[in-house]
Design goal:
alpha+beta; OB fold (Dihydrolipoamide Acetyltransferase, E2P); 5-stranded mixed β-barrel
């Protein structure tokens, strides 16, 4: 009887380890998959405050720091992407791809790193003005 219970426990343990390994592989593959989402280009300080038209100037100033506008105490902020659906904030790993889109409503295709809460942007397009009025 004890041998049977031991064998059953060993099989259950092996199956659970196998299932866990399969889940890790699937999770790793999902990290490398490109996703396309709509959202706003903002800065780390303002975050979700600029998820409507009119914040481009503020975002540019925050990303650049305050040196050019007489506030050397303002530190340059990282560029972030604020996803429309849940206002989740992702740090942009390659901000040069979104340069010129500060404060704009865009659709990005990129690879998301959930652990780092970041996105590597592969492509960007502007969201149409008619959608912004909704």
């Amino acid at each position: 009887m004890r041998k049977r219970i031991g064998l059953i426990l060993a099989v259950c343990l092996a199956l659970s380890l196998l299932a866990g390994a399969k889940h890790k592989v699937a999770g790793a593959a999902a990290k490398n998959r490109a996703v396309t989402v709509a959202g706003w280009v903002s800065d780390a300080y303002c975050g979700t405050l600029h998820t409507k038209p009119g914040g481009a100037d503020c975002v540019r100033k925050c990303i650049g720091g305050g040196q050019d506008i007489g506030h050397p105490e303002w530190k340059p902020q990282k560029m972030v992407f604020v996803r429309d659906t849940d206002k989740k904030i992702w740090t942009v790993e390659n901000p040069d791809t979104l340069k010129g889109h500060e404060g704009q409503h865009v659709q990005v295709t990129g690879r998301v790193n959930a652990q780092k809460k970041s996105v590597h942007v592969l492509a960007v397009t502007l969201v149409g003005e008619e959608e912004e009025k909704k």
